[in-house]
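Record pair follows.
FIRST:
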Amino acid sequence: MTAARTAPDPAALLARVGLPGSDAYDLPASQLRFPDGAEYRVEIPSVEGPACLDAVLEVARELDVPVTRISQGTGVGLLTADELDRMAATAAAAAVEVSLFARPCAGWGTSAMARAAAGAAVAPTAHGQDQVAAVVDEIVRAAEHGFRSVLIADLGVLSVFGRLRSSGDLPPDMQAKTSVMLPASNPATARVLEDLGADTINVPTDLTLPQLAAIRAAVSVPLDVYVEAPDNIGGFVRHHEIGRIITVAAPVHVKFGLRNAPDVYPSGTHLEATAVALSRERVRRARLGLDLLARHHTGATASAPGAAGLAVPTATYDHEGSRDAGGA
């Protein structure tokens, strides 16, 4: 009779390749920090144009919310040159990072699979090499207008971004923020995104504290965590968990979406009044979340605008590698 063979321990196999063997149920406190020593930063998403950015900064001043990053979902291609320049100049003056989405994507194109019940995972991807080229063009255009952060939702595009930055075809300080639609649901996937050049990773909205802690053990780049999520990606309101999320996931961008709100993508002047109103409420939600954080986690440290490592818009840059002096 042949002796029974002991199966390899999966946790040990994962450890051999430098990954956690399980989710981190002991909830270890992260020792990592942003370059300024802070544990968290405040991000307001879906800031779809100059009027929305003005509204965010106005309410942030009124409510004393230290907004350090705003992100946009409609895409670089649906902003005019003047709108891009206005956003860059406003953000630069406020020392706030702006991350613009690099599109197009299958869901906004002619993909049939993206519209099928089982094909939704295809929707955020670049559909064919023509769309890859179009996304790269949006990234280059953002850089030309002085932006130093783009949102990426396609694995191949992220790889191309990393190579173009390394080759000098993109500014060396250009950052890649991966979208929640490029799901890093586990430490192994998060490691891949980091290896390909992601500077900050937006994790899925529904990860538990042990799952977040395990991802943090695998990567060193900041995590972006929705503490209030739009309805179409879960609709979770996790304000009461902000303190524990910061503890296990630092450095973390605490991201205030908005539940019970219309989807405005792609936005434009026809939706501007609604988009501005939603932007204002997101900052109010951030004030509520930070007040709750202060009640129970008084030691959590936040970055202020202008902090080291923020991808604040800067001088313009062309693909030949020369920079213009001054301006947005």
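SECOND:
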Amino acid sequence: MSAASAEGAGRVPLRVIANEWTRIGVTGFGGPPAHIALLRKLAVDRKGWLDAREFQDANAACGLLPGPASTQLALFCAYRVAGPAGVIVGGLGFIAPAVILILALSLVFLAHTPPLWIRGAGAGAGAAVAAVAMHAAHGLLAPSFARVRSDRARVVRWGAYLVVGIGAAALLGPYLVLALLGCGLLEVVIERRGLPGGPLVFVIPGAVSVGGIGALCWTAFKVGALSFGGGFVIIPLMHGDAVHTSHWMTNAQFLNAVALGQITPGPVVATVAAVGYAAHGLAGGVIAAAVAFAPSFSFILLGGPRFEQIRTNTAAKAFLSGAGPAAIGAIAGAAVVLAEALREAWQFGILTAALLALLVLKRGVVQTLLSAGAVGVIAALAGAPLPH
């Protein structure tokens, strides 16, 4: 931490924190990369509250923590310039706009009898969600592989973790988190003991409970505290619980919820509010969002003063080396699950077009989803069958 930035900590008025972090929460379309760019522009380039190295170190430390990294970076930046009170004020400003907007849209898209054009928009955008998942996994592959490419043994383990993640997302449903944790812990053991990578074996316990507020809180907690490797890994963590275990949503509604989380600004984890709404109404949406974001607030309030140690912690790095590629695999596996959830032939046409737009033409996620939604509206008004 530089002397200049240390002097700046705690001096920024909370009113400024509220205004600036809410502005990022309202305008932060594009997911974590957009949030990080906006935070850097604010805290480093415009205001000079943090120097460039401190910002990079904080970003690296947040990447080693479970949960939404860009949200944790936003909280840490607020902590650095305004202390614990800044974490609360800045965090609410950054998170609340996305949660409020998703809950408002859920009232329309997840209603029992939405208008025809709304159903068409949801079916169209939902059809493109699997392509968005594949795009997210594709974008994470290269930087993840670059960290291990110089070590043949680590490359082999990286590939194994990736395959485990794909299989876990497709087959384990709500128990996916155990595969992520298992990969991370196995890598910690291998790194500490110098063991060769061997077969990966996970013991999956039986189900504990379904439905109810407790089940919703567990789903939200997994999203906020046990997700690794990028915002889209929350999708496979939520899908099994929301659709198959607790039956809060149909596959079509879940696809709608994911699409809402992608086209709204702010943190992607706010998608869990739509799942909470489907489970237990507006109160459920608020509870789910609060539980999902609580770990991030805790990590920063308790660990903010020790971020340098977190960034250089070898166990944390080793854990992410295992859990990270497994999470990327889980995102790719989720794309398969989400594609299988499509029911109408015309939706597969949209999925194919979305894959082309994202992976070949390099179009943006928001633009692709909005275009898919518009095609869905046209299809619905033209009399195309809609999923239930």
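COMMENT: DSSP finds 17 helices and no strands in the chain.
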